[in-house]
Design a protein that fits this description.
Layout (H helix, E strand, L loop, with lengths): L1 H4 L3 H6 L1 H25 L1 H4 L5 H7 L5 H16 L3 H7 L4 H7 L8 H8 L4 H11 L12 H5 L3 H8 L18 E6 L2 E5 L4 H13 L9 H21 L19 H11 L19 E5 L14 E5 H12 L1 H12 L15 H14 L4 H13 L6 H12 L4 E5 L2 E5 L5 H12 L2 H4 L2
Antiparallel strand pairs: 1-2, 3-4, 5-6
Amino acid sequence: MTKLSAMSDSQLLAHAPVLLTREHAIVADVIEYLAEVDRRRLYLDQACASLRSFCIERLGYSEDEAGKRVRVAHLARQLPRVLDELRSGSIHLTGLFLLAPYLTEQNAEMLLSEARGLSRQAVEQLIVHCFPRPNVASRIDPVAAQSALPLNDSHARSGRPATSTGPGTCASTAPTKLEPLSASSYRVQFTASAELHAKIEQARELLSHVVPTGDLPALFERAMDALLEKEVRRRTGAGGKRKRRVQKPGSRHVPVEVSREIWKRDGKKCTFVDAEGRRCSARRFLTLEHKVPHALGGPSTVANLCLLCSSHNAHSARQVFGEAHIAGKRLERARQPAAAVADHGRPETRERTEALVSSALCKLGFSKAEVTRAVAAVRAQEIEATPELLLRAALMILVPVSTTVLQNGASTLVAPHQSRAAVACGATARRAPMSTCLK
């Protein structure tokens, strides 16, 4: 500053281009650096679950600064030419941040040339010109009617997030937001679907004696308490003493009491620690990870299990099995047919399919012991794990063919120990598709 203060006015103003050139070069170098860190996934060894966490926790950027640089770094990996635009100052960092979701190899030349030298507002105009969005629906809100209602009540009735309204203004839908208002309160804002709005209204009705005002924070706190209790119970059990069961050799199953002890020991946080002793701060997408991998004989014990975030879980797998193995597994998972996805979006596993078939067989009248033996025999045959194929194979074991009985003019194959369940199953198979038995 002493050097600058000694400059004349004309010298000081002439110095601006020099500083800007340096700044553009430094910003481009930082983005190139982050892109390379991302390519090598070096943030994982620094106990960070993502490049964004690395920017915030290791480089000291704010959340907004980190988000902007991470998006442009990802863009630079796909389109390295954007670094030249940044380095020359033709397009500023914010402009590239706004353009990133729309830039492709096909349109990059056109969009980048159009965006050079534009302000943020002009870049936004360019985007809506090239990628127009539909007009918002016309709406007139009854301001007086809204103001007569308590704030939370009006939100619940409209299904819209909290917005300020007044004469001549129209409430607008805003993106999801969570921001502190004071040391003990937060503003929570999101857009609710019609289904969620209906559930909120139903909750207000059911809890009208407990929460007579229909206060949304009170309703949501009760809902979150119930959800958290259910999820904690699912992960760690009810907390009471449980009878310990002997683990089957080779089983991946983690007993509830073991899971509970690990979550308590690890503090519900990723346990990855880097070379400098810094621990990963991730608390989301946590998984139970075998220190000695299960595939290499590692047991599901407290000593051999720990909590890792999904990023460090994958990082650990790459270190043990190699990048090629992980890439192959991902490709194999990507090729799974869409039909293998269950109702709740989970891939249909063989265990889940066998449980479905076992339930169907029990409903047809077979004993649990018979069904267990049949399913185990089918498993040994290595039949494709689809419900219909497993059910047909199990029925062939449970109802071996030996006799032909004439029923209603049609031949029916019956087992030597013919039971009503077997005949019913045969009749069902003739009348309806096999999938009907599985419902």
